[in-house]
């Protein structure tokens, strides 16, 4: 069966520090991968998606970037965090673009 | 641009009640309509997925309906239990030429079922 892992579960970072959140999927190959952010009082917003290694599409302009160095690994990064980057970050995968997405447990990011 | 709205934002009911959560969307050309559950501090769990050609889907005490023409979906929960307490999210991905399913979420309904 397929599983998705995100870490860390929680993270507290100072403004201006770098960020690296990791997501890995097991039990499937060549999945579509997604990063979402859930800010307080707002709905889930798609940040990035990837249909293959090295292929990243950004949905909204922002201070973050994503990379997919391996087939089942998706990384969310920032060189300098802003206060507005605080939120709950969720990774998801699907077998194809038109198939249901399955979510990880998320990372709670607090910026001080 | 797809916009998804969920009402009510919060709902509190006593155990045993039947209840309905509402979801509306502006773009009726959708792949499907999905309902998720989110427990506090956790990720999303898929509950039901209704294909665009379907009218409803059922799973246990849950029944979701879809009316594309009016841009509405409802999630019906029968005989609610305290374990049903969570935030319920709907997502309506609009059809795009890329074939990629971009989930557009509502802000959710926070449900509290008291014993």
Q: Would you summarize the structure shown here?
A:
In chain A, 0% of the residues lie in helices and 57% in strands.
Shape of chain B: globular
* Average pLDDT for all residues of chain B: 92
User: Per the principal axes of the C-alpha atoms, what is the gross shape of chain A?
Assistant: globular
Distance between the ends of chain B: 41 Å
- What's the order of the H and E elements of chain B? EEEEEEEEEE
> Helix and strand succession of chain A?
EEEEEEEEEEE
Number of strands of chain A: 11
| Largest sheet, strands/sense/barrel of chain B | 5 strands, antiparallel
Provide the residue-averaged pLDDT of chain A: 92
Widest β-sheet, arrangement of strands of chain B: 1-3-8-7-6
User: Which percent range describes the beta-strand content of chain B?
Assistant: over 45%
Distance between the termini of chain A: 39 Å
Low-confidence stretches of chain A: none
Helix tally of chain B? 0
Range of helix content of chain B: under 10%
Give an overview of the whole structure.
The complex is a heterodimer of chains A (112) and B (115). By secondary structure, chain A is mainly β. Chain A has no helices and eleven strands. In chain A, a hairpin with a 5-residue loop joins β4 and β5 (44-52). Chain A is globular, with a radius of gyration of 13 Å. The termini of chain A are far apart. With 115 residues, chain B is mainly β. Chain B is 0% helix and 51% strand. Chain B is globular, with a radius of gyration of 14 Å. The chains are: A mainly beta (112), B mainly beta (115). The interface between A and B is medium-sized, with 26 and 23 residues.
């Amino acid at each position: 069966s397929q599983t998705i892992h995100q870490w860390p579960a929680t993270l507290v970072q100072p403004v201006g520090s770098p960020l690296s959140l990791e997501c890995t999927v097991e039990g499937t190959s060549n999945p579509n991968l997604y990063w979402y952010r859930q800010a307080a009082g707002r709905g889930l917003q798609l940040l990035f998606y990837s249909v293959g290694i090295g292929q990243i599409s950004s949905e909204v302009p922002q201070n973050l970037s994503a990379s997919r160095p391996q087939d089942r690994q998706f990384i969310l990064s920032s060189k300098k965090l802003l206060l507005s980057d605080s939120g709950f970050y969720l990774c998801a995968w699907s077998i194809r673009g038109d198939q249901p997405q399955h979510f990880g447990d998320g990372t709670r990011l607090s910026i001080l | 641009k797809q916009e998804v709205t969920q009402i009510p934002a919060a709902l509190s009911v006593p155990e045993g009640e039947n209840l309905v959560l509402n979801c509306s969307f502006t773009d009726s050309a959708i792949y499907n309509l999905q309902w998720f559950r989110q427990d506090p501090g956790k990720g999303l769990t898929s509950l039901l997925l209704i294909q665009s050609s379907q009218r409803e889907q059922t799973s246990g005490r849950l029944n979701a309906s879809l009316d594309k023409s009016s841009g509405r979906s409802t999630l019906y929960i029968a005989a609610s239990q305290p374990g049903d307490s969570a935030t319920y999210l709907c997502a309506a991905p609009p059809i795009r030429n890329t074939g990629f399913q971009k989930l557009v979420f509502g802000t959710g309904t926070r449900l509290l079922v008291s014993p």
